[in-house]
Every structure is written in C-alpha cells, then in structure tokens.
Amino acid sequence: MKWLLEEKAIACSLAAILLLLGLVNLVSSKNTTELVENANQVQSTYNVLGTLTDFYAAMSVAESGRRGYIFSGREEELSRHQTAVEEMEVELSELQQYAVLNGVQQQRLQQLEQLTRQRMVLFEQSIELYQRDRSLEAMQTQHAITDRSVQIREQIQSLLTEIKNTENQQLQDSLKQARQNIQYRSTIERAGILLIVVVACGVVWVFYWGQRRRQQFQELEKTLAQEQELSNLKLRLFSMISHEFRTPLSVILVSSQLLTEILEFKIEPSQLKNLYRIQNSAKLMNRLITDLLTLTRAEAGKLEHQPEWLDIEEFCLNLLDDFQSSHAVQHDLQFTSQGEFGRVYLDEKLLYSIMSNLLLNAIKYSPSGTQVTLKIEGDPEQIIFEVEDQGIGIPEEEKANIFNPFYRGQNVEGISGSGLGLAVVSKCVEIQKGRIEVNSHVGEGTRFRVYIPRIDKDAIPLGIPTGSVD
C-alpha cells in the first residue's frame, strides 16, 4: 500500500514523539535515581551530624555527672553519669553503622572510639577512687585523672570538629549535586516538551498542507474535467457545423462546376468569372471549416495520427498539380528533391494539411509571376520539406506569434485570410514530433523548413494503436 506524503509525515512525527518521550523518560529515570541517591546521602550525613552532636552532649553530661558525684556524693549525679555513658555507647554504635563514612572518616571514628574508651576508663577509675578513698592524696590523684580526662576531651573535640567539617562539606556537595540534577532534569523535560510541541505543530502543518494540496488537486481535477467537457462540446459543435456546412458547400461547388462545363462553350469566358468566384469561395469556405475542425481536434487531443506507406515525391508533384489546376495559380511553381526517398511511413492527411497551407500562404502573399519553390530533402533520420517564396515577408517582431490561431501580421492588409493556416501547420507538425524553422525578411520573401522524423514501422509495438494521439 502506497502511503500519502502527509501520512508518511504523521507516522514519522509520531515515531519522533515516541522516541523523544522515551529519551526524556530514560534521562528522567536516571536523574531520579541520582536524586534518590543524593537524598539518601544527605539524610545519612544529617544523621551522622546529629549523632555526633548527641554523642558530644552525652559526653558532656557524663563529665558533669562524674564531677557532681565526686564533689557532692549524691547518687543522682552518679545515675546521671551512668545514663550518659550508656548513651555514648549507643551513639558510637550508631556511627559504626553508617556506610556513608569514607576511609578517612572511618579512621577518625576509630580514633574517636579509642579516646572515648580511654576517657570512660578514667571515669570509672575516678568514681572507684572516690568510693574507696577520700583522703588528700586521693584528691590529688583525682586532679591528675581530671587533667588527663580534659586532654582526652580536647582530642575528642578536635576529632569531632574534623568529622563534622568533612560531613558538612559532603553535605554541601550533595546538595549542590542535587540542585544540578534537578536543573538538568528540568532542562531536559522542557527541551523534550518543546521538541514535542514543535513536532506536533509540524504534524498539524503537514496535515493542513496536505489538505490544501488535496483541495487544490480536486479543484484542478474539476477544472480539467470542465475544460475537457468544454473541449468535447466544442469538438462536437465544430464537427456538426463542418458536416452541416460541407454538404451544401459540396452541392454549390459541384453545381458550379457542372454549370461551368455546360456553359463554357456557349458563352464568353469573361461571363464565367462569377462561376469561378463561386467555386473559389466554396473552396475557401471548405478549407476554413477544415482548418477549424483540425485545430479543435488537436486542442481536444482527438487529432488522429495514422501513418502509412507514402511516395513523397509523387505526393508533392500531385499537390503542385492540384494547386496549379484548382487555384488558378499565376505563379511559377517549382519542385526539387535531394536524396533518395522511396516509400516512407508518414501520415498523408497531416502532411497534406502542412504542405497545402504552406503553399497556399506562399502563393497568397507573393506577387503574381514570382517563383514559389517546394523542395524536399531526405536522410536516414528525417524528411525535410521546404517552401520558399518571394513575397512580402514577415516582420521580425511578429515571428514569435505567427503560429497562434487567428493571428495575422501588420503587413497583410488587403489580403484575405483567417490566420489559421500556420496554426494548423504547427499542430500537425507537433503531433508528428517534428519541428519548424522560419527564415523571413520583409520585402524579400519567406522560407519555411519542416523537419519530420522517419517512423520505423517495425519498431512500433504490437497492440499499441497509432490511430490517435492524446
């Protein structure tokens, strides 16, 4: 099944839209995964920071409880110290479970745990010493333990600061990456939507253009059908007119010829001129009808092309004899041939229309007594017919219009004519795929050369009619 152009465009556009949607979905899915990973990392970083803060707070409470218990001996302070120590243990365990910590952070965490264990040992030693001995020497030992605990606390604070700074930097990096991913996804989605809108607009435009083209094609088909119908009507009209006119014209011509034959020995020749006028007018009217019908058939594509074997030289000689006898020609008609012809495969009716019109124009537009030459040349490819006169010639600026129907030159005033002869010649030459050359100068004469290609009868495929040309 052959697809129309707009159908192909719509199919390609839908495929492009689906492809764009797939790409946008793929990019969005990948971007969403990255956003989820960044969010998890941010959440873990927040948890680490929170745990570190809780750990430091618990360590401070444990130190405060120890000192309170040693100075006051209250059991509440000891209980507070023990609870804070347990919280520190819990916070350390939670820190060990965070996979987000890198190698450097893990090392720092191990150092933190070691220092914390050392400080817890000092806490226990201080409490046991207080419970066992409260002498002055014991108090000095307590001060030494406290000094050592403060040193370890400062190291722990330094480690906590380093861990927090690193985690904060990672948090900022994760947030920055998340923002970039969001912007990237937003850009991709906007670009995808824009491309889809552009493709959709293109589909709409192609569909609209296809509809407009289809409408124009339908209007053109309608116009062509109307013109064809008008051409057929015109052809039928001229065929009817031709039939209706030719019958009385034939009666007029035959009757005048019979009268001429009967009366030519009974009256003076000068008295027969009216009969000759009737015959010439009837012939002129018949030729006009024939030319009109030929042009109408050519315009309707109904002009027949029926080539047959023809003796060209005999055809030309008979044509000149016919002109010499039937048109009362007062010119010197000459015929020459060059090359070998024999019998050629041409359409005699079309050739007669060509040569008779060219000869008639040459005689009509040439002064009486001048020479009109018909020359034929033959070669293996084509036949060349040449008609040359010594008449009024054709102005240079009018040569482009002489083959238009009803066109007559500005220098033919006083010479009767219809302007159809050369139009008929052009159509008959065209239907035989030939060409015409014109060489003319005002006051010096005109020469027409008609080139008609030879037809190889054996090259015509069987079953293909040659009776008409569309």
TrEMBL record:
It comes from the Bacteria. Residues 149-181 form a coiled coil. PANTHER family: SENSOR HISTIDINE KINASE RCSC, TWO-COMPONENT HISTIDINE KINASE. The chain crosses the membrane at residues 191-210. The lineage of its organism: Bacteria, Bacillati, Cyanobacteriota, Cyanophyceae, Desertifilales. It is an enzyme of class 2 (transferase). This is histidine kinase. Its EC number is 2.7.13.3. InterPro entries: CHASE3 (IPR007891), HATPase_C_sf (IPR036890), HATPase_dom (IPR003594), His_kinase_dom (IPR005467), HisK_dim/P_dom (IPR003661), HisK_dim/P_sf (IPR036097), Sensor_HK_Regulatory (IPR050736), Sig_transdc_His_kin-like_C (IPR004358). GO terms for molecular function: phosphorelay sensor kinase activity. Residues 240-456 form the Histidine kinase domain. It comes from Desertifilum tharense IPPAS B-1220. The keyword Isomerase does not apply. The keyword Ubl conjugation does not apply.
